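Hi X.,

You mentioned you wanted examples for the new student's onboarding notes, showing what a folding record looks like when two proteins sit in one file. Here is a clean example. The first protein comes first, with its sequence line followed by its structure tokens.
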Amino acid sequence: MLERESPWGPLAVADAHVHFFSHGFFTALVAQKPGLTLEAAGAQLGWQMPPAEPTELGGMWAAELDRNLVQAAALIASVPGDEPSIAAAAQAFPERFFAFAMVNPSAFHPEAFSGVHAVCLFPAMHRYFVHDEAALRVFEWAQLNRRAVFVHCGVLSVGVRGKLGLPSLFDMRYSNPIDLHAVALRFPSVPIIVPHFGAGYFREALMLADLCPNVYLDTSSSNHWMRYEEVHHQETRGALRHVFRRALDVAGAKRLLFGTDSSFFPRGWHQAIFEEQARALYELGLSHADARSIFGENLLRILGTPPNLT
């Protein structure tokens, strides 16, 4: 087992939030802007464009995890229709990856998702309420097939779209975690993952987690939404300590999932996020056992050690 050095000593890490920016993802993006090519997009972003074969990109991420002593990661297919890419990568490296696939419920075809561990809903992006009938069918599928559902709430900002000059016509009316309350109660066996602590709806995410034991909060990204909180004036680690303290008080260590929101090469795995979060939690006095839970064991517990697609 790979273990990464941490303030508590060696720690097995499983990252709950890594975007799999595949060739299919970029092909879908550049098609939205006349005249934009993959080569031009790569030059404009300063990023390394992914290989056409998703298993090759999976190999790049596996090597990146090795370099950073990370045991496993949830790879997120970041555009609807890219589930074959993420499933292929997870199948090629079954001991390293969980496959998370974005879906627009209005175009959900269950047979296409047999190779994924979780489906990802972005209500603000695709403009629906998570309690709409189409979305409920996704939860029904997850319950029947013992899968998880990832639901992005709060502020949604897709940086790559802005850098490429693509509009982000999202609608925050559909972003409130409270919309998940009745859904989570209706499907109590389905693990529901809310990323970025609710991304600006922190209070609402805590309320949801308090009332629904199947709701998990993902800690990923630099959490810029904290500027909307009363702690915005604090230095980053102080603000993170405040957020983690409240999340631990309400949800407990067993329902927090460490994530980085890593996404592109050559940056690769965003180790600075790990360092910031680990230091903030250590300064709160988190035990080694609880650190093991947050930084890896919780993800493995709710999804099963890869592969677990029965």
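Then the second protein repeats the pattern, sequence line and then tokens:
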Amino acid sequence: MTSNETPFVYRFVPAEGAGAPPLLLLHGTGGDENDLLELGRMLSPDSALLSPRGRVLENGMPRFFRRLAQGVFDEDDVRRRAAELADFVDSTRQRLGIAAPVAVGYSNGANIAAAMMLLRPGTLAGAALLRAMVPLSDPPRANLAGAPVLIASGQMDPIVPTSNSARLAEMLRDAGADVTRRTLPVGHQLSRADLVLGKDWLERVGKQTLQSA
């Protein structure tokens, strides 16, 4: 789906039932708006799903912001793209009549979700960050006021050091988020363990996010 009201190409899948928060699905490098739809439905069968495609191309592969090298981000672009994506989410959810979503981001999508939490804390009701890194070296002080965040790291991840994801967890806790951090016995790719962990976490925090929306 596209719209004259947004620069993003995206998919929207209406809710299948009541009582589950909408999910904002944010793909990794080289993905698109279709990549995480199946994961989103498995994580929360009743949720509405909003899934945009990243607007930055790296060798033809969609991303949500520029990087200078693997693990080295263009932080000015991170800030600009996070604001752009937050504007899209705010306007699109109002138009669709859905509550503030919980982001489910993988890799580059998890990084932009973390940046949105720090830069635009009112846009997301929470976030499941799968293989996320610290997106900004010196973010502004945010007030996340108990927003639930899940960080799922891979013990054998060659891209994201566990020390980096630990620093991200501490950064979000310092901003007031209710952070759950787990290190799974996997690499960078998603696994069944992520599905089980994410599903349990969403079932626990789903009602909380709807009540605070």
